[in-house]
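Components:
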Amino acid sequence: MDLVSTFVIYWADNTLILGHRNSEWTGQGPILEQDIALSNIALDLIGQARNFYQLAAVRINRIDKNQTLTEDDLAYFRDPSEFRNLILVEQENGDWARTILRQFYFSSYQFLLYEELLSSADRDIAAIAEKSIKETRYHLRWSAEWVMRLGDGTEESHARMLDAIQMLHPFIGEIFTAADFEYEAAEKGVCPLPEKIKSRWYKEVNSTLASATIPVLSADKISPNALSGKNGVHTEQLEDLLSVMQILPRAYPGVSW
Amino acid sequence: MHATEQELFDSKISQEIRIEPKDWMPEEYRKMLIRQMSQHAHSEIVGMLPEGNWITRAPSLRRKATLIAKVQDEAGHGLYLYSATETLGITRDETIEQLHAGKAKYSSIFNYPTLTWADIGAIGWLVDGAAIMNQVPLCRASYGPYARAMIRICKEESFHQRQGFEILLTLSRGSEAQREMCQDAINRWWWPSLMMFGPNDDASPNSQRSMQWKIKRFSNDELRQKFVDVCVDQAKVLHMDLPDKDLKWNPDSGHYDFGEINWDEFYEVLKGNGPCNHERLEARKKAHEEGRWVREAAAAYARKKNHNHALI
Ligand SMILES: [Fe+2]
Ligand SMILES: [Fe+2]
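Structure:
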């Protein structure tokens, strides 16, 4: 597989895995309206994932004429070590605070990146970004509002936000550590290096955290992490997730659903 | 001479003029509506659980997206119905409280487990199908907010029904194991679906009242018969059997005859002794309890913001 295709897979995996996590809330949300809102985000993300997987399949099949991969082959028949998603998105939901913060971090990154992808040298990737950016803007606004509500809500919600900040802190660094496929894609004008959006990410995220009365993050305090989802090195949580998600297609291979 | 409020109400009902929230209505009418509508709202919400179980295991990305959208629709139905019920003078919190206290009912169908993927198809085909049969006439219910909520809901339900059927159709054309899965799900969901129409007419005292007030338009048995007739034909398309040896075309009545429902099971599940009654209610209570701090935070934040607003 060429490295630009890996970049496509990276985004397919990110959006699928986070969409899947969010959908675990469907029917269990704290407020009916918010159950609907988070399910909606899950749906948007899975829709985006399908676009990316379909594109990846087309690219792979074009290079290898014997392949007839589909979106579902890519989602259901790869092992955890073949998944490229960020460690951040595979983390268990935890409470509403952690789910919200995870979404907020991710959407902030995704939005800044999609803005750049609009002018990607790869027209197919640019087209997906253009189709998706409105959704992502909404996810960002929704999650930022909840960060403020929880941070500046009650004592309990504030404390839970602080816990979430601590829980998710180790997974921020990976976002801005470029993998080989990002270097390659950047070289070809497909995407910016993550470094390019790092300072804007901190600025935007910190401005929301500040109005939520939460201590801001420092870009210097990022510890290098031995895990790298981008390179297929994941936490156990991804394995657990996939063993549920992939169960039917793997138990009954070769049939359609 | 002035007409009394009761006479005015009666004449509206007989002329098919909708009753609106501010209109006078008999206390019994209001109570019947609150009971029926809140029960209906709870059914939508509890109904999210059995299907929600399969979202994470949906076997393709397309199925996963459709299932999330479906369960989300049900949440929306719950919302419309809770809002419509509030027009009768009871808050959403109060209605939900009644559910959690075990004082309000929800449709017994959701007390059955979803064991395989085929159950998602069977629920769409049979459960949403039966719901449509019940609900389409409610689009003409005499109480305005209820009727209007039902119009929105029915459009989505028919979409659910088609999707469910399509899941089963795919399975029925699949492997041996898939066909077995399909037949097994139909076997388990068929009778509970027939129970969704409620007791036989002669055992359903409230029905008559409800029909006089034009909330209900058809009796339980009429609707059940219609449902059976439709399903028999659809089952042929699936090449699947309906688990009833007494099912037979009756040329005299122009309908299918069918076997006797197991009413003992019906009343047992209604009483709370179904396979999942406990689990479902506990799941709802847990979500509600665990969400309390979130609701409190949102309320506290809103108060602060309003206060700041007032200061500016
Ligand atoms: Fe519904
Ligand atoms: Fe439905």
